[in-house]
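The step that takes the researchers longest sounds almost clerical: writing a folded protein down as plain text. The outcome of that step, for a single protein, is printed below.
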Amino acid sequence: MEHEAHTHHGHEGHQGHQGPEGHAGHAGHSGHADHTGHAGHTSHTDHQSHTGHEGHADHHTPGGGVSWAMAAQATLHCLTGCAIGEILGMIIGTAFGWGNVPTMVLAIVLAFFFGYALTLRGILAAGVDFRTAFKVALAADTLSIAVMEIIDNGVIALWPGAMDAHLDEPLFWIVLAISLGIAFLLTTPVNKWMIGRGKGHAVVHRYHH
Protein backbone atom coordinates (compact mmCIF):
# COMPACT_ATOMS: atom_id res chain seq x y z
CA MET A 1 0.00 0.00 0.00
CA GLU A 2 2.78 2.38 0.72
CA HIS A 3 4.19 1.65 -2.71
CA GLU A 4 0.90 2.53 -4.39
CA ALA A 5 0.66 5.83 -2.55
CA HIS A 6 4.14 6.71 -3.61
CA THR A 7 3.32 6.01 -7.26
CA HIS A 8 0.17 8.06 -7.05
CA HIS A 9 1.92 11.08 -5.64
CA GLY A 10 4.57 10.88 -8.39
CA HIS A 11 1.95 11.37 -11.11
CA GLU A 12 0.42 14.32 -9.30
CA GLY A 13 3.72 16.13 -9.54
CA HIS A 14 3.55 15.95 -13.31
CA GLN A 15 0.07 17.37 -13.59
CA GLY A 16 1.33 20.89 -13.04
CA HIS A 17 3.35 20.65 -16.23
CA GLN A 18 0.42 19.58 -18.35
CA GLY A 19 -1.71 22.63 -17.67
CA PRO A 20 -1.63 25.75 -19.79
CA GLU A 21 -0.11 27.64 -16.90
CA GLY A 22 3.08 25.59 -17.15
CA HIS A 23 3.63 26.67 -20.73
CA ALA A 24 2.54 30.24 -20.34
CA GLY A 25 6.10 31.35 -19.74
CA HIS A 26 7.05 30.01 -23.15
CA ALA A 27 4.49 32.06 -25.02
CA GLY A 28 6.78 35.09 -24.87
CA HIS A 29 9.26 33.29 -27.07
CA SER A 30 6.92 33.45 -30.02
CA GLY A 31 7.77 37.14 -30.31
CA HIS A 32 11.28 36.27 -31.30
CA ALA A 33 10.00 34.84 -34.56
CA ASP A 34 8.97 38.37 -35.59
CA HIS A 35 12.55 39.57 -35.25
CA THR A 36 14.06 37.00 -37.60
CA GLY A 37 13.11 39.14 -40.59
CA HIS A 38 15.14 42.03 -39.24
CA ALA A 39 18.40 40.14 -39.12
CA GLY A 40 19.22 41.12 -42.67
CA HIS A 41 18.86 44.82 -41.86
CA THR A 42 22.23 44.91 -40.10
CA SER A 43 23.93 44.46 -43.45
CA HIS A 44 21.96 47.44 -44.79
CA THR A 45 23.39 49.75 -42.14
CA ASP A 46 26.92 48.79 -43.15
CA HIS A 47 26.02 49.33 -46.79
CA GLN A 48 24.67 52.81 -46.05
CA SER A 49 27.80 53.77 -44.13
CA HIS A 50 29.89 53.06 -47.23
CA THR A 51 27.80 54.91 -49.74
CA GLY A 52 29.27 58.25 -48.75
CA HIS A 53 32.79 57.02 -49.49
CA GLU A 54 32.26 56.20 -53.14
CA GLY A 55 33.21 59.69 -54.24
CA HIS A 56 36.35 59.64 -52.14
CA ALA A 57 37.56 56.49 -53.86
CA ASP A 58 37.41 58.18 -57.22
CA HIS A 59 39.06 61.32 -55.84
CA HIS A 60 42.12 59.44 -54.58
CA THR A 61 42.49 57.13 -57.53
CA PRO A 62 45.76 57.81 -59.38
CA GLY A 63 45.10 59.40 -62.71
CA GLY A 64 41.43 59.93 -61.90
CA GLY A 65 40.26 63.21 -63.33
CA VAL A 66 43.28 65.50 -62.88
CA SER A 67 42.27 68.83 -64.40
CA TRP A 68 44.50 71.11 -66.42
CA ALA A 69 43.65 73.89 -63.97
CA MET A 70 45.18 71.87 -61.12
CA ALA A 71 48.30 71.17 -63.17
CA ALA A 72 48.55 74.81 -64.22
CA GLN A 73 48.28 75.95 -60.60
CA ALA A 74 51.12 73.62 -59.58
CA THR A 75 53.22 74.86 -62.51
CA LEU A 76 52.51 78.49 -61.66
CA HIS A 77 53.68 77.78 -58.13
CA CYS A 78 57.04 76.53 -59.44
CA LEU A 79 57.20 79.32 -62.01
CA THR A 80 56.93 81.95 -59.27
CA GLY A 81 59.88 80.51 -57.38
CA CYS A 82 61.93 80.18 -60.57
CA ALA A 83 61.23 83.76 -61.63
CA ILE A 84 62.18 85.14 -58.21
CA GLY A 85 65.39 83.10 -58.14
CA GLU A 86 66.47 83.99 -61.65
CA ILE A 87 65.84 87.72 -61.29
CA LEU A 88 67.60 87.79 -57.93
CA GLY A 89 70.49 85.80 -59.38
CA MET A 90 70.85 88.28 -62.24
CA ILE A 91 70.81 91.20 -59.82
CA ILE A 92 73.50 89.64 -57.63
CA GLY A 93 75.62 88.58 -60.61
CA THR A 94 75.41 92.04 -62.15
CA ALA A 95 76.21 93.75 -58.86
CA PHE A 96 79.38 91.68 -58.40
CA GLY A 97 80.37 91.91 -62.06
CA TRP A 98 80.21 88.15 -62.65
CA GLY A 99 80.22 86.57 -66.07
CA ASN A 100 77.32 84.83 -67.75
CA VAL A 101 78.06 81.30 -66.54
CA PRO A 102 78.40 81.97 -62.78
CA THR A 103 75.42 84.31 -62.92
CA MET A 104 73.29 81.64 -64.60
CA VAL A 105 74.43 78.99 -62.09
CA LEU A 106 73.47 81.27 -59.20
CA ALA A 107 70.11 82.00 -60.83
CA ILE A 108 69.37 78.27 -61.16
CA VAL A 109 70.37 77.57 -57.54
CA LEU A 110 68.15 80.40 -56.31
CA ALA A 111 65.30 79.21 -58.54
CA PHE A 112 65.36 75.83 -56.79
CA PHE A 113 65.70 77.51 -53.39
CA PHE A 114 62.68 79.76 -53.80
CA GLY A 115 60.67 77.02 -55.50
CA TYR A 116 61.20 74.74 -52.50
CA ALA A 117 60.67 77.62 -50.07
CA LEU A 118 57.20 78.41 -51.41
CA THR A 119 56.15 74.77 -51.08
CA LEU A 120 57.69 74.48 -47.62
CA ARG A 121 55.75 77.49 -46.41
CA GLY A 122 52.42 75.91 -47.33
CA ILE A 123 53.25 72.51 -45.82
CA LEU A 124 54.62 73.96 -42.58
CA ALA A 125 51.45 76.04 -42.26
CA ALA A 126 49.52 72.74 -42.16
CA GLY A 127 51.40 71.77 -38.97
CA VAL A 128 53.92 69.37 -40.51
CA ASP A 129 57.41 69.14 -39.01
CA PHE A 130 60.26 70.65 -41.02
CA ARG A 131 62.00 67.36 -41.87
CA THR A 132 58.84 65.84 -43.33
CA ALA A 133 57.93 69.09 -45.08
CA PHE A 134 61.37 69.29 -46.68
CA LYS A 135 61.11 65.73 -48.02
CA VAL A 136 57.67 66.49 -49.44
CA ALA A 137 58.96 69.66 -51.11
CA LEU A 138 61.84 67.77 -52.71
CA ALA A 139 59.50 65.07 -54.02
CA ALA A 140 56.93 67.59 -55.24
CA ASP A 141 59.06 70.23 -56.97
CA THR A 142 62.39 68.77 -58.04
CA LEU A 143 61.34 67.41 -61.45
CA SER A 144 59.04 70.34 -62.16
CA ILE A 145 61.67 72.98 -61.38
CA ALA A 146 64.37 71.03 -63.24
CA VAL A 147 62.27 70.83 -66.42
CA MET A 148 61.36 74.49 -66.11
CA GLU A 149 64.95 75.62 -65.62
CA ILE A 150 66.23 73.58 -68.55
CA ILE A 151 63.63 75.10 -70.87
CA ASP A 152 63.93 78.61 -69.46
CA ASN A 153 67.71 78.83 -69.53
CA GLY A 154 67.84 77.00 -72.84
CA VAL A 155 65.70 79.72 -74.47
CA ILE A 156 67.83 82.48 -72.94
CA ALA A 157 71.06 80.78 -74.04
CA LEU A 158 69.84 80.32 -77.62
CA TRP A 159 68.28 83.78 -77.98
CA PRO A 160 70.76 86.08 -79.73
CA GLY A 161 72.14 88.69 -77.34
CA ALA A 162 69.97 87.58 -74.39
CA MET A 163 72.92 86.32 -72.35
CA ASP A 164 74.66 89.68 -72.58
CA ALA A 165 71.57 91.77 -71.85
CA HIS A 166 71.48 93.68 -68.57
CA LEU A 167 68.62 94.35 -66.19
CA ASP A 168 68.17 97.88 -67.52
CA GLU A 169 67.69 96.64 -71.09
CA PRO A 170 64.22 95.73 -72.47
CA LEU A 171 65.69 92.68 -74.22
CA PHE A 172 66.44 91.03 -70.88
CA TRP A 173 62.86 91.32 -69.63
CA ILE A 174 61.31 90.37 -72.98
CA VAL A 175 63.39 87.24 -73.34
CA LEU A 176 62.86 86.33 -69.67
CA ALA A 177 59.07 86.65 -70.06
CA ILE A 178 59.07 84.58 -73.25
CA SER A 179 61.31 81.89 -71.75
CA LEU A 180 59.17 81.61 -68.62
CA GLY A 181 56.02 81.43 -70.76
CA ILE A 182 57.43 78.59 -72.85
CA ALA A 183 58.62 76.82 -69.70
CA PHE A 184 55.12 77.15 -68.22
CA LEU A 185 53.43 75.65 -71.28
CA LEU A 186 55.81 72.70 -71.51
CA THR A 187 56.00 71.97 -67.78
CA THR A 188 52.22 71.94 -67.19
CA PRO A 189 51.73 68.57 -68.95
CA VAL A 190 54.58 67.15 -66.87
CA ASN A 191 52.87 68.24 -63.65
CA LYS A 192 49.54 66.87 -64.86
CA TRP A 193 51.16 63.51 -65.53
CA MET A 194 52.83 63.47 -62.11
CA ILE A 195 49.71 64.53 -60.17
CA GLY A 196 47.67 61.91 -62.01
CA ARG A 197 50.00 59.24 -60.63
CA GLY A 198 49.94 60.53 -57.07
CA LYS A 199 53.32 62.25 -57.34
CA GLY A 200 54.51 65.83 -57.55
CA HIS A 201 52.07 68.33 -56.08
CA ALA A 202 49.58 65.55 -55.38
CA VAL A 203 51.73 64.83 -52.31
CA VAL A 204 51.44 68.47 -51.23
CA HIS A 205 47.64 68.43 -51.60
CA ARG A 206 47.36 65.59 -49.08
CA TYR A 207 48.76 67.82 -46.36
CA HIS A 208 46.55 70.75 -47.33
CA HIS A 209 43.42 68.60 -46.92
